[in-house]
Amino acid sequence: MGQYDRLTPEEQARITEIQDVLIERYVEQKEAIESGSGSRAKDIELEIKKLRREKEQILEWVSASSSA
Predict the structure, then answer these.
(1) N or C: which end of the chain has fewer CB within 10 A?
(2) Can you list the pairs that 46-52 forms with residues at least 24 positions away whose Cβ atoms lie under 8 Å?
(3) Residue 46 to residue 12: CA distance in whole angstroms
(4) Which among 54, 56, 66, 48 is positioned nearest to 5, based on CA atoms?
């Protein structure tokens, strides 16, 4: 896992969980777009952005705390 070596087991688990959910959301978004449900696709996009932000925050916090 290389880049996640400094994470606690809990943080690693959350990152893995986020990545799994992101995969599911990307598939859902693709299906929503293909079925013509633009509003659902936009809702999913917001969920994706929120999850990506959470992942980035975890990684930034670990990066900041390890350089202190």
Answers:
(1) C
(2) 48/22, 51/18, 51/21, 51/22, 51/25, 52/22
(3) 23
(4) 66
Confirm if 14 and 57 have CB atoms less than 8 A apart: no
d(Cα 57, Cα 46) in Å, to the nearest integer?
16
Burial class (CB in 10 A: 0-12, 13-18, 19+), 57: exposed
Q: How many domains does the chain have?
A: 1
Containing domain of residue 23, as a range? 9-67
Residues counted in the chain: 68
Residue 1 counted as domain residue: no
In the chain, the percentage of residues whose pLDDT exceeds 90 is 76
